[in-house]
Fold this sequence. Notes:
Blueprint: E1 4-9, H1 14-22, E2 29-36, H2 45-48, H3 61-64, E3 68-70, H4 74-78, E4 83-86, H5 92-104, E5 108-111, H6 127-130, H7 137-144, E6 150-153, H8 162-167, E7 174-183, E8 202-203, H9 209-220, E9 223-225, E10 228-230, E11 236-244, E12 250-258, H10 264-272, E13 291-294, H11 302-305, H12 308-311, E14 314-321, E15 327-333, H13 337-353
Parallel strand pairs: 1-2, 1-4, 2-3, 4-5, 5-6, 7-11, 13-14
Antiparallel strand pairs: 7-12, 8-11, 9-10, 12-15, 14-15
Amino acid sequence: xxxxxxxxxxxxxxxxxxxxxxxxxxxxxxxxxxxxxxxxxxxxxxxxxxxxxxxxxxxxxxxxxxxxxxxxxxxxxxxxxxxxxxxxxxxxxxxxxxxxxxxxxxxxxxxxxxxxxxxxxxxxxxxxxxxxxxxxxxxxxxxxxxxxxxxxxxxxxxxxxxxxxxxxxxxxxxxxxxxxxxxxxxxxxxxxxxxxxxxxxxxxxxxxxxxxxxxxxxxxxxxxxxxxxxxxxxxxxxxxxxxxxxxxxxxxxxxxxxxxxxxxxxxxxxxxxxxxxxxxxxxxxxxxxxxxxxxxxxxxxxxxxxxxxxxxxxxxxxxxxxxxxxxxxxxxxxxxxxxxxxxxxxxxxxxxxxxxxx
Length: 358
């Protein structure tokens, strides 16, 4: 397979760094351009991230000497690339303008940002669940005036553990969901060195997360009808989002009431045999087993389980009946891999596999 030249926008931030480690020797993509804010323009990448590299892995050799471009220099960044992975840390209005500018240059944009998630004709994908939303792209391209360029968004990291677990049970019609997420500090783009106040601490508020956790799943479960993405109406979700003293791994405690209550055995069977929408595509980052139930009472744990399947799997545990809802359980996913860079790169792999880059 011929490799596609791509650019990483926001290459100096934590998610951008994740992208670059995942893209080293990638079978589908070749990193041609690194772009970031004007402050990094003209610097070698190793100099631009000096003192700011946030991952345990070292800076990949292949990017150390690459010169960082200004993300707003659309001509230079977009000259030789067909796809961009966007991990910019700007306000939503600026990101929408930048992503649409690249799309109008006939470049495919896969966004890790929230700015375009609620744009009516922009698919918001967890590839294993709702790749059929890509059918809306003809409508989006007509709006943008493009033949090839378009934007696809990745959903918020907070929902990516419990939405797949619920998706496997959709035949039983989940009706009401109460979820609390316990979110790692890397979700804010920080480490403990940069945020020492979080050591041994819990903060019961993360701006914007609760609204995203309640509403974004309904777009994941949306259908494309008459040229529109029509959001699901159920389940009704109530969320609380809490920052905890963990580096990587978002955990969710979930209580759910069904219109058609299943047995515990039926739930475990659906999780065990869940077949994803991309099961037969053999995408490089796709986990061999997406949903993994753990029998131990004290699992899953971020330290032990967040890296399962290279951080791309979801782990579930503690399924039991509830005194108010029908059942309750615990879910875990890696927030900067499955939830951010890995999820976006998997979406790019799906787009490549489906021929949108031909």
